[in-house]
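#lab-general

N.A. 3:47 PM
ok so I finally got the sequence cleaned up, no stray characters, all 113 residues accounted for. can someone with queue access submit it? mine expired

B.Y. 3:52 PM
send it over

N.A. 3:53 PM
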Amino acid sequence: MKRSWLFRGLTMLAFAAAFLAALGYVVMSLWNAVLPAVAGVHAITFFQAVGLLVLSRILFGGLRGRRLRGWHWRGRMQARWQQMTPEEREQFRSRMSGWSHCRRRDSSTPSST
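B.Y. 4:20 PM
back already:
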């Protein structure tokens, strides 16, 4: 059992290293193909590209592990849905049927302005 765990860990480490190397190569290639001609900056090496990836992860992604942001509500909504009666579900569906991301004002409600 311990051997299986060790093999899995080493396999995952190898895949992570290969993924980082491939991503570093892509960043280096894109940087060297676009930015020297457009912005007049110098070409970068592979290790500088990997450093840029790490720096962008620190600045924009944080140092924590991967989180599924915005998906935590799904479990709560599913639990609430299971507790609803069929009448409550139908009422909820009818209220949500007219909802959209642009949040149009309903013409039947008076305006507050």
